[in-house]
Amino acid sequence: MVNYKDLGLVNTREMFAKAVDGGYAIPAFNFNNMEQLQAIIKACAETKSPVILQVSSGARKYANQTLLRYMAEGAVQYAKELGWEHPQICLHLDHGDTFELCKSCVDFGFSSVMIDGSSLPYEENIALTKKVVEYAHQYDVTVEAELGVLAGVEDDVVAEESHYTKPEEVIDFATRTGCDSLAISIGTSHGAYKFKPEQCTRDPQTGKLVPPPLAFDVLAEIEKKLPGFPIVLHGSSSVPQEYVDIINTHGGNLPDAVGIPEDQLRKAAKSAVCKINIDSDSRLAFTAAVRKVFAEKPGEFDPRKYCGPARDEMTKLYKHKIIEVLGSDGKAE
Ligand SMILES: [Zn+2]
To answer: According to the model, what pLDDT value does residue 197 have?
Structure first.
């Protein structure tokens, strides 16, 4: 049993309370490898932004859970080395699907876990979430739950259709489970293809796809039912067109990739939404930078020469999200 406090990590309780009060959102960035983690920590240290490092079950399979945990522990030290005196770093399990997985993460030094019972019938979601909360809270580990179904693909999470969260269920759900935050479905979606072209309109000037707006009316209803309760948005990458273009002009093929416009996320961050999950954008930044090096320097075979530029591009992206979209800069000195 390792307690996260011994690793220098923090849970989400205080982060979220401050974010709800301050009208900003905490970035939740997924990581699977060293370059991503370096980029996240560098961006957060330079902007003094609290951060949630997310590990999905896919990441655990890819990178090994023991290694990921030591990387997160190392991240705290790295942040201090970069001159960030009091780093606010949370290590969070993204989309835990069983009690056993959540328990193993709690026992392993995670400071926060998500139990995603959103695909289960309502009462089963409550029972599973409550069980995880009861275990996690013994160790002061915070728990994110989910109500409503997001469309799209993210590692092992696949759903064809989305179902908005029903505002009439949130009080009952939050009260009976005791969860610390709630992921809701208001039209965000996992992956780089968040909407089918037929769900979008086309900008007559650029010919680019314009996605349907988020359901801010549903969000407002939920906020009314649970004032000040921390709300989480998954699937909130914006799929920057510049990266899609670089990928497509350097041998890639991502036709009609589309994300959530940043002005919508900016608006959400000012509300009770206090955690915004961003994964695909970092994958796109990484891939765009690597493809560019491969196309321009076909003789290059030192991974540092293409992972280095990828890391720089991700750092730029993370700083942009923190400063221009979430407003979390300067919130953790
Ligand atoms: Zn998600």
So the answer is: 82
Quick check: is 74 in a domain?
Answer: yes
- Cα(119) to centroid of ligand 1, in Å? 13
How remote is the CA of residue 56 from the centroid of ligand 1, in Å? 9
Strands 157-159 and 151-154: antiparallel
Q: What is the DSSP letter of 327?
A: -
CATH number, domain of 39, equals: 3.20.20.70
**Gap from CA of 97 to ligand 1 centroid (Å):** 12
The set of residues, in sequence order, having a beta carbon less than 8 Å from that of 137 and lying 6+ positions away, is 143, 178
> What one-character-per-residue DSSP string does 26-53 give?
EEEEE--SHHHHHHHHHHHHHHT--EEE
> Encoding tokens for residue 17?
């309370």
Q: Is residue 314 part of a domain?
A: yes
Compute the distance between CA of residue 43 and CA of residue 217 in angstroms, rounded to an integer: 33
Give me the domain span that covers residue 245. Answer: 4-326
* pLDDT lower than 70: segments of the chain: 152-162
Q: How many CB atoms lie within 10 A of CB 294?
A: 13
Q: Residue 205: CA atoms inside 13 Å, Cβ hemisphere, count?
A: 0
Q: Is 245 a catalytic residue?
A: no
> How would you label 132-146 residue by residue, b for 16+ Cβ within 10 Å and e otherwise?
bbebbeeeebbbbbb
CA of 116 to the centre of ligand 1 (A): 9
Choosing from 6, 21, 94, 281, the catalytic residue is 94
* Residue 195 confidence (pLDDT): 84
Number of domains, the chain: 1
Q: Specify the pLDDT at position 205.
A: 85
pLDDT number for residue 159: 61
In angstroms, what is the span from residue 154 Cα to ligand 1's centroid?
7
DSSP 232-291: EE-S-----HHHHHHHHHTT---TT-B---HHHHHHHHTTTEEEEEE-HHHHHHHHHHHH
Q: Is residue 132 part of a domain?
A: yes
Domain-located, residue 332 = no
Q: Is 59 helix (H, G, I), strand (E, B) or coil?
A: helix
